[in-house]
Write a structure and sequence with these properties.
5% helix, single chain, mainly beta, 1 helix, globular
């Protein structure tokens, strides 16, 4: 069984920064990708960013250049550094993991495991 625990959410003003963390416990090979999704109020869930076991990254166009995804050397913790936050970034952010990074990049398959989410609120 795999568990993902997110932390680091909160409230910031426009232009501010936050760092989210996601730690995977259980039977999660470091080769699995770790990714972030978000769902804003009244919106569909959308992909934010992901990182493969080898360190390859992929970003949604809406966050490219503002957000950075990384993971620790052990491979079990992912970070999402969010800069220049805008009100439209307000959402519940979810961490997820799966085996095939291309599935995440191309949107071919849902991740295998999900975290409970952490709220990010950006005020103008």
């Amino acid at each position: 069984q795999v568990q993902l625990v997110e932390s680091g959410g909160g409230s910031v003003q426009t232009g501010g920064s936050l760092i989210l963390s996601c730690t995977a416990t259980g039977d999660t090979p470091s080769a699995y990708y770790l990714a972030w999704f978000r769902r804003g109020p009244g919106k569909e869930r959308e992909k934010v960013a992901g990182i493969s076991g080898g360190g390859t990254t992929n970003y949604a166009d809406s966050v490219e250049g503002r957000f950075t995804v990384s993971r620790n050397n052990a491979g079990n913790t992912a970070f999402l550094t969010m800069n220049s936050l805008q009100p439209e970034d307000s959402a519940m952010y979810y961490c997820a993991t799966g085996r095939v990074f291309f599935d995440f990049v191309a949107g071919l398959k849902e991740p295998d495991y999900w975290g409970q989410g952490t709220q990010v609120t950006v005020s103008s």
